[in-house]
Amino acid sequence: MRTGTPSPALPVDLSEARRVAVEAAEAAGTLLRSRVDGPVDVRPKGTAGDVVTELDMAAESLILERLRASYPGHRIIAEESGILEGAPGEEMVWLVDPLDGTNNVAIGMPVYAVGLALCARGEPVLGVVHDPVTGRTWSALNGGGAQGPGGAPLTLPERPRPGRESNPVLAWTQGHQVGPGDAAAFRLRSRVEAGCARMLQLWAPLVGWAMLARGDIDGFVGYLPEIVDLPAGALLAAEAGAELRRLDGAPYELGIDRPPAELSFVAARPELLDRLLETAAGSAPAP
User: Fold this and answer.
1) What are the boundaries of the region Disordered (predicted)?
2) Which of these CATH numbers, 3.40.1790.10, 3.30.540.10, 3.90.870.10, 3.20.20.70, describes 14-147?
3) Domain spanning 169-280 has what CATH number?
4) Extents of the domains making up the chain
């Protein structure tokens, strides 16, 4: 994935937008953390095994209220509310995932995150990932690097953790529309898993992206991922130093208007990327 300095003509101060997004994500995280251990009303969402809870709705409502207060003209694409139009011709679009990892929360597993991204003309310029469990927040600006908790610079460690040079730890994600009978997904996941020490399937992609950005894992593979949480996490990892490619090795262009088939990805530490692409190449679905 290529990142660069956003156009100076952007009609928004990205430093201020980062502050607004971080505060909204952290407020949503506080709400989630205060209620996640109580009774949670879980309802089916669609026919692919996804679920939604009142926590998703409450956290999203809080975030939307704050975004609308600061940027009333911006468009918003929210996980639960869908597309919320802004001013006519508005090119700034927020993507909001108020609770990435709802299935985990539904079974009492504390692995979830809040994600926000701001896109300009379809391309992400700001990403925020907040982990309510630990209270930590990570953010990135396109071409402006990544930050960890407290605003400290975030970059990948120069080397993987000891013992992982040839035995990487990876994460896997796939979209809710990918069914158990998807042969391409099965082949790809099986080949990737066979070539690593461990492969995590977290059900919370934003957690995986933050782990990659910190160097906790070495790579991340996604097959037909969900668009609402993709830009925030991918931008964070790329600005921290990870490299992203499409499954066929082509450059990864992260735009919210791209077709689903072009959103599948391989992301990794730079020195691992070619090896991971070779592993995926034999099983990647035809474009």
Assistant:
1) 141-168
2) 3.30.540.10
3) 3.40.190.80
4) 14-147, 169-280
Task: Indicate the annotated binding residues.
Answer: 79, 97, 99-100, 229
Tokens of 34: 């205060």
Per-residue pLDDT tens over the stretch 126-165: 999 999 999 999 999 999 999 999 999 999 999 999 989 8
Distance separating alpha carbons of residues 218 and 271, to the nearest angstrom:
10
Sole residue written with tokens 């894992």: 217
Q: What is the pTM of this model?
A: 0.94
**SS percent in the chain: helix, strand, coil, step 5:** 35, 25, 40
Per-residue pLDDT of 160-201, as tens digits, reads: 999 898 899 999 999 988 998 999 999 999 999 999 999 999
What is the rounded CA–CA span in Å between residue 59 and residue 101?
13
